[in-house]
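Q: Please design a sequence for this.
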């Protein structure tokens, strides 16, 4: 699931604080925006398969 809230991709260079928005561009500088939510999991996680199996076992 992707978050609708976005943050200015270059806020560290252009702003003194993060600028959050729902639009496709930054409302203050007009720059690009990025998804503000972190990834829910790391697709390169070498142990993810084992964590998911353990979680499934605990449900049953």
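A: Design:
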């Amino acid at each position: 699931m992707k978050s609708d809230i976005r943050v200015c991709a270059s806020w560290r260079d252009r702003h003194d604080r993060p600028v959050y928005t729902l639009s496709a561009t930054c409302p203050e500088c007009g720059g690009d925006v990025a998804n503000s939510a972190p990834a829910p999991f790391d697709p390169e996680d070498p142990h993810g398969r084992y964590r998911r199996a353990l979680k499934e076992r605990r449900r049953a």
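Q: Thanks. Anything notable?
A: The chain has a mean pLDDT of 86. Helices lie at 11-14, 48-59.
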